[in-house]
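--- STAGE predict ---
source: upstream dedup step, 1 unique chain passed
mode: sequence only
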Amino acid sequence: MRFNKLDMNLLAALDILLKTRSVTRAAEEMFITQSAMSNALGRLRTFFDDPLLVQVGRAMELSPLAQTLQGPVRDIMMRVESATRIRPAFDPLTDSAVFNVVISDYSLSVLGAGLSRVVSDQAPNIQLNLRPQHARPSVLLERGEADLLIVPDYLSNAEHEGQILYEDDLVVLVASDGPHAGVPMTRERFCAARHVLMEPFTGQDSYSAVVMREAGVTPVKVLSTYSFSSIPALIRGTDRVALIQHRLVAPELARGGLAIKPAPFDFAPLRQSICWQAHRSRDPGLRWLREKIIDCARAAPVPAPVA
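--- STAGE serialize ---
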């Protein structure tokens, strides 16, 4: 089949070539010979009147035109792949499917146990792959590397479909036997305290970092971690503090050794969203999974306000 004189079969080859920047790896991914992939690249170069892949040292780089083609071609292939995967109905008890969900360890702590039970009980043939947070999570949707994102609302993309899952507050976590436990957490004390900070290895700011920056607070960092869920253990038995999500720390309070206090400045609540590609809104399997995640969010315990 041709469109505007382009053999549509070459689009798949172009998509893989732009992603791998290698004739050899592209051939391996498409299960064809290297000579066949070289031939496809030659035909693409003729059609676009552009080299597309340029040798720079020992590596291949994308030409300026290839860089502009990468997003649109991936979007086309995503839509084709989605259309061929969609079935008229989805029966969770009998149908099999694989879903990739990008989720932070914080949201995993809030939703993971409930979601695992639901999938185990209601959809035994589903494979659910939970992937770590990403600096640019929307790109993973666009590349087809993720089916759903569970991210703070400020990281969502207006071009994608989405829904707020739940809201959360930030609280100041301290050791119950430490110097901050029996006194009010004033702004002055908070600013002078020794902080444990969550700094994602992907480079984006955590919501607590955003809040402190907007409040004009520069924390005294003495320890950083890549994991939200590790923070309570890093606070217990120390003189340190952390600005942390209330839902994450509430179960830890029952274990002892910790106390929480209101933050000494105002901020908007943290809103966690679920996001997906608009063209997959009618995918019955993905719709089922979205609904179950939303149900888990509604069923998750809400901690009492901090006095």
